[in-house]
Every structure is written in structure tokens, then in C-alpha cells.
What we know:
Radius of gyration: 16 Å
Strand order of the largest sheet: 1-8-7-6-5-4-3-2
Largest sheet: 8 strands, parallel
Strand content: 15-25%
Distance between the termini: 12 Å
CATH class: Alpha Beta
CATH superfamily: Aldolase class I
Shape: globular
Number of helices: 8
Number of domains: 1
Number of strands: 8
Structural class: alpha/beta
CATH topology: TIM Barrel
Amino acid sequence: MKKIKISPSILSGDFSQLGKEIKRLEEGGADMIHVDVMDGHFVPNLTIGPPVIKSLRKYTDLIFDVHLMISPVHKYIKDYADAGADIITIHPEATENLKDSINLVKDFNKKIGISLNPDTKIDVIKNFLTDIDLILIMSVHPGFGGQKFIPDVINKIENLKSIKEEKKLNFDIEVDGGINFENSKAVINAGANILVSGTTIFKSNNGNIKKNIDALRLI
């Protein structure tokens, strides 16, 4: 079985000491660092931009899994590539030409992820599946941490896994939103191999990050 990777979201960390939080996540066994970028336009919240990501890059060699919830996204891809993102995930709704944006990310030698909101159909990206490195299934409506998991996305994960196997494709299936100890097994069984979690990793078990990461990975 493919190893389940955990990508903790620093959105739930202490923003006054994000560098230390990233070191804690690395020591706790995180496989990558999930960075939520929100613009107050595409989603109703504001977070961080390229200068912060660039300043955090020196704290770890872990993969920076950068989720851009910004629109229009295309003109900002270079900024996030230059800042140190390893994976750049965008939303189809946030670009005028998805193919051009996919190609631009690849031009910077970064992995390209596409994020599907709970109401966004897989059909939107069916013509691009051979170009995509990662598909991020949102199990909440993006914008804020701490929301409850939407169970209906399990079917979407299963459908995506079936397409992946049928067409012998190699993209990762990542799930983000309300992931906790109660639903992580169902998400993994449905076909996900990367789990994003913030509140559960930082807050559960008195903040024992290693214990929480191990529990989500079902070690």
C-alpha cells in the first residue's frame, strides 16, 4: 500500500512563530507543509503571501505544498514559485485558461495541483488529468480552518481513484477540510494518499504533534 502522507496546515499554527511551528511539524513526522494562501476575494479570508513563504523556506527542507485560493491566479504563479513553493495548487475557477496556468507552473519546474471545491465536478479537469501531479479535494468550502468535514466528498474521492486506476495515471489524491481521527480512515479507504489537517494536528492530545500525525496516518 502506498504510504499515506500528512501535510499539516500552518493555518492552525501560531502565526507569531511560524518558523518554530514548522520545525515542530518536521520533528513530529510531517511529510510536507501545507500553506493556505487566501486573498479575501476568491475566498472570504486573508492569510499570507510570497514574502512570508520565502522567509519560512529556510526553516525546513520539507516540501512546501502551497494552495493558492486567489483570483486571478495566473499572474501570481511566478511569485510563489520564486518564494519556494514545491507544489502549486490552483482552482480551475481562478484562471481564464487552465491549460496555460498548468503549463506555467511546470515551466518553473514545480509540481502542479488542481483543487476541486465541494461543488466542483471532476469533469472540469478530465481533459488535463495526464498533466496534473496532484488533485486536492476540498472537503469543506474553502476560506476558514476548523470547519466540519462534508461526507459527500467520499464519493468524489472514490470516483477519482477509479478514473486514476482505469487510465493508469499517477497523480496524488489529497484531501483538505475537517480531517480528523474519526474520518481519516474513510478518506484513505476511498483513495486519498495525502491528508491535510490543521486543527487536529495542532490542538488534539494537548498539542502532541507526533501522536496526532501518526494517528491520522494510521500507523
